[in-house]
Amino acid sequence: MPLTTQPLTIAGRSFRSRLMLGTGKFSSGEAMRDALEASGCEFVTVALRRADLSGKKDPFANILEFISSERYLLLPNTSGAMNAEEAVRLARLAVAAGLPNWVKLEIHPDPRYLLPDPIETLKAAEILVKEGFIVLPYINADPVLAKRLQDVGTATVMPLGSPIGSHQGITTRKQIEIIIEQATVPVVVDAGIGAPSHAAEAMEMGADAVLVNTAIAIASDPVKMAAAFKAAVGAGRTAYELGIANVSDLASPTSPLAAFFSSRS
Amino acid sequence: MDRFAALLVPKSDAALTEMAAESRRVTRRNFGRTMRMFAPLYLSNECVNNCKYCGFSRDNPILRVTLTVEQVVAEARHLVAQGFRNILLVAGEHPRFVGEGYLEECIRALREFVPALSIEVGPMDRPEYERMVGAGCEGLVVYQETYDREVYAQMHTAGPKRDFDWRLDCPERGCEAGFRRIGIGALFGLSEWRCEALRLASHLDHLYKHHWKAFYTVSFPRLRPAAGGFKPEFEFTDRHLLQTICAFRLTFPEVGIVLSTRESAALRDALATVGVTMMSAGSHTEPGGYTGQGGDDLHLTVKGRRVEREAPASCDRAEGQFGIADERSPAEIADVLRVLGIDPVWKDWDAAILSEVAV
Q1: Confidence (pTM)
Q2: Which residue in the set B28, B213, B347 is minimally distant from A218, CB to CB?
Q3: What is the ipTM, given to two decimal places?
Q4: Domain A8-264, CATH 3.40.50.300 — does that match?
């Protein structure tokens, strides 16, 4: 039985899949395309710095040609920008190049851990929202920053589970729980998700979606790994929608009343 | 640094194989199945320095030339047609032939059609580096050659390059000037390799702490045959190179590691999956090497003055800095990388990030 979960709505647009994919680190455009297909995702993010934005169809920067704009919502990201000004410039450039006005706002001035700059991210979000962009900001798992961004009008918040590509899983769990509890927009856990169990954990916590890249791109078989993440996201979300039983310190028999009924018969 | 030093001690074959496997995993996690491609473009082989190991040394009686901006554009267009979107502009150190104004002009002319530009030229002061960044230059490469002061003094016998500290501080002046990518390295073979690697790692560690916004690359070039016929005194074998790459990768998982066409095709293919993240391909180390630009302007330079040749021959070429070992074309190398399961990435930077320039 396929797991059917409630649709995800971001900025008025509905998505069946709660798995979003990044497009870096794949061994080829073809490998990426096949993994996207197997993941069932509808939401794909691409680093603008890797794409040809001139409209000249550069064969040496053809990453966009492997992503069907009919099947996927293409979410340009501003990776490479080190401050608000550069991120805003990149977002405008993407729209000028004919890409959607959705933008995954990523500003990481530290190329070592790629941790997002909260101050510049907030600044850029303010400008981009005013200009009519649908802004999905990548942030550290900081509940106050998440609220500040929602106040500004971002379409989601995307707190990190752990640093990009680190595969450490959700080391920021307690903070993300607060973000989810307080959220008025979808919460997407982005970065650090190295195994399907991490993705399932995020979904069970009540995250609205997860974004995965490295774990799929560098897998020995990205297609199968994409399918594994798809299953994990479905499983985690289904369990969340059903309601997961509380943790108890005491053992509890699986059918506590059955013995009682039989002794009376 | 203790960990780094421990990784450099002699290893058994089994231990080195395990290091390489771990290095491969770490590289894959941080950089994915990709290789950033670049090409050097030599602007000039004029030089005011005498460096015992370098073909461009001022006292070497070689054919010299400095390309005009138009000739540089022609060379760059050739590289762009081959796929390169990331070009490193290289020149000897000679203010009379290669001034900041000239470099700035070259950068401005190229940034119209080359997404990423770096320079590897004589050291400059911060305001001059700022001019380069302002013109659209993203990266700065300065190799210290050797971090051993005594050996440095022996190798650099004449010219401003004799100032060890002025060179050593280049990466920091570059960071302050706003370069996004900084390349450092040492020329292996000039001194004992473990000490050299340790000092290079210390330099990198220092830069990470004090200038946290730059993306760093390291390189371990080995001496190649060059005019002057210098023979390196210290060995740095393939095995040593492999161990050095692994030690850097395991200590600095995020550092870019560059491997040039100085190395043989077979070795480059083997190291491509172990830790290297950036490769040149089809390189020429002489100005005009790609398209023959500047061939009608070859001359000798004696005491800083141009001297015309007595009997020019049409087949003459400017002297290269060193001979290359991997002579495969960029397309051939890209094909080999794909077979190895690595995506050659030609473009991963856009000049438009820094300014509203249509690229």
Answers
A1: 0.89
A2: B28
A3: 0.82
A4: no
